[in-house]
Amino acid sequence: GENVEQHPSTLSVQEGDSAVIKCTYSDSASNYFPWYKQELGKRPQLIIDIRSNVGEKKDQRIAVTLNKTAKHFSLHITETQPEDSAVYFCAASTGAQKLVFGQGTRLTINP
Amino acid sequence: SQTIHQWPATLVQPVGSPLSLECTVEGTSNPNLYWYRQAAGRGLQLLFYSVGIGQISSEVPQNLSASRPQDRQFILSSKKLLLSDSGFYLCAWSPLGVPSTGELFFGEGSRLTVL
Question: Which of B44, B58, B108 to mutate to test the interface with A (most CBs of A within 10 A)?
Answer without folding.
Answer: B44
